[in-house]
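FORM 7B - TANDEM STRUCTURE REPORT

SECTION 1: FIRST PROTEIN
SEQUENCE AND TOKENS:
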Amino acid sequence: MKVVNNTPKFITVEGGEGVGKTTQLRLIETRLQALNIPLLVTREPGGTPLGEQLRALLLQKDGLAPTAMAELLMVFAARAQHVSTVIAPALERGEWVLCDRFTDASFAYQGFGRGISLEVIAQLAEIVHPTTKPDLTILLDVDPEIGLQRARARGELDRFEREAAPFFEAVRAGYLSQVEREPDRWRVINAGADLENVQRQLDALLNEWIAGATS
């Protein structure tokens, strides 16, 4: 595939626990690099020294857990630093950005999962990144019970992974609600299938989307 139009794109990958984001992000990265697309790969929460410190606080399983609102504000503090110092500058340089989670995760986790007003989250998003929005968001979708089984098999669980099943069911519902609201931006992968099947789905998706994005 020949890249004709290399206008920088912002691609995000979303999903609940145990959906295989790390593995599929590597595949996407490899595909884009094979096309000689300048690429920055990053993650949320994190992506900056400050963001990584906040990530550690958010995921720690010991100590007093932040309230739902404190959790949301910590995520957006990390995001503000991330967008300002990493994501926006990369796009301005002409690089594509591939990010493990972004604001859609806040709607799913803190909105649907914790019960915070979606309007409040939307207001924070408008303040923190009014002009920086994903061009493509890939949802790795799996039954929460399967995802939790995979997460447990990986080893010790972090604070989010220790939540009860209804929380993750709400998170999944939050993601699927966003897919319905913005179908042009979202693509859904059945991440409950075996690895080979998931990667075939992802390959087909990338072939179609990149061809349209770069023609």
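SECTION 2: SECOND PROTEIN
SEQUENCE AND TOKENS:
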Amino acid sequence: MSDLAPPLERAIHELSRLPTIGRKTAQRLTFHLLKRPKEDVKALADALIELRERIHFCRECFNLADEDLCPICASPKRERATLCVVEEPTNLLALERSGSYRGLYHVLGGSLSPLKDIGPDQLHVRELMARVQRGDYTEVIMATNPNVEGEATAVYLSRLLKPLGPNITRLAQGLPAGGDLEYTDELTLRRAFEGRRGF
């Protein structure tokens, strides 16, 4: 039983349900919100409600959007011959921050994971296949995460998509900038050697 007033306990409990937020962090956030002006807290609450009411998946790529199409799919400035396949909208945001890709995306909604009962039917694989069949893509880039599930997903999708004609590529993997060879795992080192290029 907590010695906190029920509204405090409820706020801490709800905040602690967020990813990477433990009870201590939730408690700090709750007490921080109590110190803020009421208008600031109301603005946060309104933003969260608006988020749930207005944000949905883009009908084309399954990125997050507040319109029928996300800003990337709707933009006439995007290069339309390449399609980059990612697991989640957060992966798309990371690639966009790099500024190195100007094509279109397809968000799977996760990766294949038999242990978690996530198969192709739980992801946007059917929609990807239909999109590649009706589109005129010269390249489909597999940008799934470099872990077991991401690799399995990339291999599975490349086998499905290859007969449809586009060039299937995978993001290069290797040593991170500023990394130290001594602390780099074997798989990363092997991929760095396999992906080496001229100097």
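SECTION 3: OBSERVATIONS ON SECOND PROTEIN
The chain has a mean pLDDT of 92.
The first strand starts at residue 56 and ends at 57.

SECTION 4: SIGNATURE
Preparer initials: ____
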